[in-house]
Amino acid sequence: MRLLWKFLAVVLVVSFFANGQESAGKVSKFDDAEYLHLTGADKKTATPIRGTLGFNNETKIVEFVDKKNVPAFSIKYDAIKSILYERTSTPRYVAALLVSPFFLFSHSKKHYLTIQYTDDAGTGQFVSIHLDKKNARDVVATAEAATGKKVEREEEK
């Protein structure tokens, strides 16, 4: 019995130190995100690119990689000016027409993260990412912790 307790104590100590080392150089990745790439001046012409949003604490870069592992953008933490989290809410008209009028009382919610930054030339730029509802809170918390910037929150009800 004592051997079992000693073994468990050693496993706990080793896992504690191993977790501490992983968090120092950790890359936080969030799947099921969509980068809304603007192709023109009109916001309606944005093409969604599905991929993974990542916060790399070693290189201090926010990056988005599409499904084919091609980087769509990478932003240095120092270049970030502000981060905005938005949650929008819209009625479900189609479901109300097709299924039941009671769907008018429920709303679909979408989550967006907008990062405003300056590029190498010093001009202001921004990127907008549509987040998955399952990990939107984790993305906001990670963005705040990794970059050191306060994330502004704007939520529609």
Fold topology:
Blueprint lengths: L1 H23 L2 E11 L9 E10 L4 E6 L4 E6 L3 E12 L1 H6 L8 E12 L5 E8 L4 H12 L3 E5 L2
Parallel strand pairs: 5-8
Antiparallel strand pairs: 1-2, 1-7, 2-3, 3-4, 5-6, 6-7
Can you describe what's shown?
- The structure is a single chain.
- Helices cover 26% and strands 45% of the residues.
- The chain has 157 residues and is an alpha+beta fold.
- An eight-stranded mixed sheet has the order 4-3-2-1-7-6-5-8, covered by helices on one side.
- A hairpin with a 4-residue loop joins strand 2 (47-56) and strand 3 (61-66).
- The termini are far apart.
- Residues 16-24 have low confidence and may be disordered.
Features of this protein?
eight-stranded mixed beta sheet; PH-domain like; globular; 3 helices; 157 residues; alpha+beta; 8 strands
Strand content: 35-45%
Number of domains: 1
Sequence of strands across the biggest β-sheet = 4-3-2-1-7-6-5-8
Question: What's the CATH topology name?
Answer: PH-domain like
CATH arch. level architecture: Roll
Briefly note the structural class of the backbone. Answer: alpha+beta
**CATH superfamily descriptor:** Pleckstrin-homology domain (PH domain)/Phosphotyrosine-binding domain (PTB)
The CATH class assignment is: Mainly Beta
What's the mean pLDDT score?
80
How many beta-strand segments? 8
| Approximate shape | globular
Distance N terminus to C terminus?
57 Å
Radius of gyration: 20 Å
Q: SSE string, helix = H, strand = E?
A: HEEEEEHEEHE
